[in-house]
Amino acid sequence: MKNSLKDRSSDEAMRINRYLARCGLGSRRKVESLLFRGRVCVNGERVTSLALKVLPGDVVTVDGLVVHPTGLLYAVMHKPRGIICAASDKWNKTVLDLLPVDVKVLRPFPVGRLDKESEGLLILTNDGDFAFRVAHPRFGILKEYEALLDRPLEKKDMLRWMSGLWVDESMRRPVRVTSIDRDPEGQWVSVTLGEGLNREVRKMVEVLGYSILRLIRRRIGRLTLESIAPGETAIKSKDSLWRMIVDGGSV
């Protein structure tokens, strides 16, 4: 007989959201959405509470299919332009399509998003807790982008940008904006964000009256993109990748 959902006391118990994240079903936010929408059952009983713990021997299903924790994966990719950050898409090639088969079967997902025409540093994992620590603003992991504008950025516009801009009915203020000494002169800028919302850099630039010709995510925390070519992926251990993000390192 399977364990009762009422008796969950065990040193081996794992909270249901963490268990689902370990099954490669997505970030913490995504797996919690599965719970709240009533798509998860434990031992045949529908579960919607984040407080429930999974015990050894429990049968966990999502949409009627049994799920199991997978081997954990931590990878860094140089995402090229023209590729979308998604697990699957009917019309476009995704970042998962660039992975070797033995990596793709571990069901990784991108941590944060880069839009189709953007490129640069991207972390992929099937560890929802790790993804949460990298992506959530509370942990202070900054992201740095390099943007090529359609014309030189005027000083008054840089000051306006740094003071904050209204984007999608909310005030957005970058951590830092600086010019990059690179041709074409005055058109390359570095933008550091504490919370990267959907197309945030592009939207801020549009508010200022400019357009972006190229956008590269160069840094996550203190991890920088330097040597891996577009489309390439480097596999890391959890500890080594976290150290690179927190203490510094490059790929």
Provide an overview of this structure:
With 251 residues, the chain is of the alpha+beta class. The protein folds into three domains: 53 residues, RNA-binding S4 domain (Structural Genomics Hypothetical 15.5 Kd Protein In mrcA-pckA Intergenic Region, Chain A); 86 residues, Pseudouridine synthase I, catalytic domain, N-terminal subdomain (Alpha-Beta Plaits); 79 residues, Alpha-L RNA-binding motif (Alpha-Beta Plaits), CATH 3.30.70. It has seven helices and 18 strands. The strands form four sheets. Strands 7, 8, 9, 10, 13, 14, 15, 16, 17 and 18 form a ten-stranded mixed β-sheet that branches. A four-stranded antiparallel β-sheet has the order 3-2-5-6, with no helix packed on it. Helix 1 packs across helix 2. The relative contact order is 0.15.
Q: What is this structure, in a nutshell?
A:
This protein is of the alpha+beta class and 251 residues long. It is built from 7 helices and 18 strands.
Describe the SSE topology.
Blueprint (H helix, E strand, L loop, with lengths): L13 E2 H7 L5 H9 L3 E3 L2 E2 L6 E2 L5 E3 L2 E2 L7 E6 L21 H4 L4 E3 L7 E7 L2 H8 L7 E7 L5 H9 L1 E3 L2 E3 L3 E4 L8 E6 L6 H8 L4 E9 L2 E2 L8 E4 L1 H10 L1 E2 L1
Parallel strand pairs: 9-15, 16-18
Antiparallel strand pairs: 1-4, 2-3, 2-5, 5-6, 7-9, 7-17, 8-9, 10-14, 10-15, 11-12, 13-14, 15-16
Backbone structural class? alpha+beta
Percentage of β-strand residues: 25-35%
User: What is the top-level CATH class of the largest domain?
Assistant: Alpha Beta
Rg computed from alpha carbons, rounded to a whole number of angstroms: 21 Å
Could you give the order of the helices and strands?
A: EHHEEEEEEHEEHEHEEEEHEEEHE
Just name the CATH architecture of the largest domain: 2-Layer Sandwich
User: What best-fitting shape do the alpha-carbon axes yield?
Assistant: elongated
Major β-sheet profile: 10 strands, mixed
Count the beta strands.
18
Number of H/I helices: 7
CATH topology of the largest domain: Alpha-Beta Plaits
Q: Give the fraction of residues assigned to helices.
A: 10-25%
Mean pLDDT score: 92
What is the end-to-end distance? 50 Å
CATH superfamily of the largest domain: Pseudouridine synthase I, catalytic domain, N-terminal subdomain
Tell me the domain tally.
Answer: 3
